[in-house]
Amino acid sequence: xxxxxxxxxxxxxxxxxxxxxxxxxxxxxxxxxxxxxxxxxxxxxxxxxxxxxxxxxxxxxxxxxxxxxxxxxxxxxxxxxxxxxxxxxxxxxxxxxxxxxxxxxxxxxxxxxxxxxxxxxxxxxxxxxxxxx
Amino acid sequence: xxxxxxxxxxxxxxxxxxxxxxxxxxxxxxxxxxxxxxxxxxxxxxxxxxxxxxxxxxxxxxxxxxxxxxxxxxxxxxxxxxxxxxxxxxxxxxxxxxxxxxxxxxxxxxxxxxxxxxxxxxxxxxxxxxxxxxxxxxxxxxxxxxxxxxxxxxxxxxxxxxxxxxxxxxxxxxxxxxxxxxxxxxxxxxxxxxxxxxxxxxxxxxxxxxxxxxxxxxxxxxxxxxxxxxxxxxxxxxxxxxxxxxxxxxxxxxxxxxxxxxxxxxxxxxxxxxxxxxxxxxxxxxxxxxxxxxxxxxxxxxxxxxxxxxxxxxxxxxxxxxxxxxxxxxxxxxxxxxxxxxxxxxxxxxxxxxxxxxxxxxxxxxxxxxxxxxxxxxxxxxxxxxxxxxxxxxxxxxxxxxxxxxxxxxxxxxxxxxxxxxxxxxxxxxxxxxxxxxxxxxxxxxxxxxxxxxxxxxxxxxxxxxxxxxxxxxxxxxxxxxxxxxxxxxxxxxxxxxxxxxxxxxxx
Lengths: 133, 508
What we know:
Chain A is α+β, with helices and mostly antiparallel strands. Chain A has two domains: 5-58, no CATH class; 60-132, no CATH class. Chain A contains five helices and four strands; from the N terminus they run αααβαβββα. Chain A has a four-stranded mixed β-sheet. In chain A, β1, α4 and β2 form a beta-alpha-beta unit. Chain A is elongated, with a radius of gyration of 21 Å. Chain A starts with a helix and ends with a helix. In chain A, 15% of the residues are buried. The mean pLDDT of chain A is 86. Chain B is an alpha/beta fold. Chain B has three domains: 28-97, Elongation Factor Tu (Ef-tu), domain 3; 101-374, P-loop containing nucleotide triphosphate hydrolases (Rossmann fold); 377-501, Up-down Bundle (Lysin), CATH 1.20.150.20. In chain B, strands 8-14-13-15-16-12-17-18 form an eight-stranded mixed β-sheet, sandwiched between helices. A six-stranded antiparallel beta barrel of chain B has the order 1-2-5-4-3-6. In chain B, α10 (376-399) packs across α12. The longest helix of chain B has 24 residues, at 376-399. The mean pLDDT of chain B is 92. The A-B interface holds A 6, 112-118, 122-123, 126-127, 130-131 and B 12, 15-16, 19, 21, 23-29, 43-45, 72.
């Protein structure tokens, strides 16, 4: 049976988990050799993507993207981090920022496959729809 | 003047104050793979089975439905044009199971399986939305079938009666009048307190257009809805079409009304589902149909029902149509649907080409509900008719040897020939119950024995015309009493004899 990128990434995670830096190096070398032997080096990119997913999943790390209209300061980011931790049940959150003038105000948070839309634009559209009704 | 202005401003302020500016939590995913009307989506981890999805394509959003929930991906069918969707496009869960608009606004309309109008008569005014997939009513809510559906087709109403809440399969080869029977049945529902839904699955649009024109012309569109998934529509729309039609019927059922729904035809529906299943990589079984093709039709046809009075007393009568390949009734889909339904009307090519139309084969056709779906008067005449028909079939095979026959046998053969002639009926010309009873009564009492076989159709047409003028009282009594008393029988006899006195072609 064909071994999926996910399975490779999972085995790499399991063999590297809890090892010292030197041990990890050895594991990675062996892993690359295995990939070369199985003719799977071309799938390295996919395996790395899966590995990051598995790593974050096991460690309870959530990567979140926050979109705002004018940028956010440190205190607001801290507040948002706590909010995302509460929503997702993760242990740690890494937040990346993005600025989009189109949303007018408020924030849109994306983490995993979830979107929390608190933008002014969406709310105005909702208000418009409600008034039309 | 100022009061109304103030009122409006007040209302506006109130509305804006009452508006909750909540944050929206949404689950999204991305298209991994797309092709042949099937998309594989990653993400959307909390999606439900048969939940509606919204594909945000560059050309506008398209709806889809989740069908395969796998470990790390979701297989979805796209209900509409999938050519605009690209890999990597965003997919949004809509948090609701696929549903269609229902209500009185759909009557007289031609709609697609999602309830969008196709007839150019403007928006559909929907009262409610009903889920496309619904569990059929249970034992407690049901009642045995007992009221008739008058199809207006003599051969069916007499030999294979259909009751309200029954599922009667119409089966036969291509081009021998399967749809014609269903359309005639719809036309005859005028004034019978029945809503009709005609679901066209994979039909040629030209054929559907002519059917709609015919229904309009005969005034049947006043109580009929046409749900159309044409031959050029994607398989996903063909697949949901009968369920959507049934959901529309359930709205009237819940209001306690009677509905007649025609699925034309379920063999194309099974083929569409096979296409979807194979594209979703579900394992194929016999004839490459997936394993759940039986459930596909059984869950649809179980939704036809007769509810008891406590639960509103409504009914859904289903007339599924199956097309066979050169009379092969033992193929996979025909046997499945035969076993699900409460009987079948089998149309025979030989009979059709001999000119006896509708080509209903009285031997292979059955109705498992039987005479409880007939009014008493019809029961009385139809019982003897069945016997005559059966005897004739037996003797006709025997008489082909050409040996000399005794008088009794000859008489039976002669009557059988007239019976066959009476069962012939043109398309779009349904006959009312009272007229049917009158002509059957004439036959079983030997009143047509002296009419030449080739003159039977003239005799019949003339009799209806004569009865409409001189026998209106008798016809009305049949309809009102629904039974034949001795007095009424005598009146019918004298009516027919009076009519015969004016004829010149009788055998002396």
